[in-house]
Amino acid sequence: QVQLVESGGGLVQAGGSLRLSCAASGSIFSINSMGWYRQAPGKQRELVARITSGDSLNYADSVKGRFTISRDNPKNTVYLQMNSLKPEDTAVYYCYIAQRTDIYWGQGTQVTVSS
After folding, report:
1. pLDDT digits (tens, 9 = 90+) for 97-113
2. For the range 9-12, what are the long-range contacts, defined as Cβ-Cβ under 8 Å and sequence gap of 24 or more?
3. What residues form DSSP beta bridges with 44?
């Protein structure tokens, strides 16, 4: 089993920044990718950013140039630096880790961007 603990969400004004962290613990091996999804009220969960085992980075078009994903391997932690936040970034953000055929999710952290 893998446990994911997220932190860093909150309320911020448009144009501001937040940094999300997700620390993984437990049986971690053969990671395929780690990253972040988000889900706004009434909408489907969508991929925000991910980093693969080969260090490839993928971003949603809506966050390119504003969000940066990074990883600290010794700490099994993935970060999401979010700059120039917009009200449409308001959502619950979930980190995940995919290894072999399993996907594990964090509990979610609320990000609210006021206009």
Report:
1. 999 889 999 999 999 99
2. 9/93, 9/109, 9/110, 9/111, 10/110, 10/111, 10/112, 11/112, 11/113, 11/114, 12/85, 12/111, 12/112, 12/113, 12/114
3. none
